[in-house]
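Supplementary Methods. Inverse-folding protocol.

Structures were first reduced to a discrete structure-token string of length 106. This string, shown here, constituted the complete conditioning input.
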């Protein structure tokens, strides 16, 4: 995946006031993606709106979601899989609890 596409998604999430966005180059660590992005939101509504914005931004770049998990109302963790890039949008509480970033920091 072109790094510019990852950057375009990060910019879109920044416009939505994503909290503590992190991008991990995982192509040498996992087989399912080149990039994993992890960001936090302030509420279920904020998380859902960032997911919608992410879908719009990636569709403009020619990427459709392969799958979305956790999209029920008020969700505090939604994952969206774009194939080469996986995005986790989480509440700060879930992010602190699961510490996903430790999986990708090698």
């Amino acid at each position: 995946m072109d790094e510019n596409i990852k950057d375009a998604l990060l910019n879109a999430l920044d416009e939505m006031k994503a909290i503590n966005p992190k991008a991990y180059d995982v192509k040498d660590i996992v087989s399912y993606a080149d990039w994993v992005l992890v960001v936090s939101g302030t509420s279920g509504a904020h998380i859902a709106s960032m997911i919608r914005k992410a879908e719009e931004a990636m569709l403009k770049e020619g990427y459709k979601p392969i799958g979305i998990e956790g999209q029920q109302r008020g969700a505090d963790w939604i994952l969206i899989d774009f194939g080469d890039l996986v995005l986790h949008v989480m509440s700060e509480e879930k992010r602190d609890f699961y510490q996903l970033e430790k999986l990708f920091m090698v």
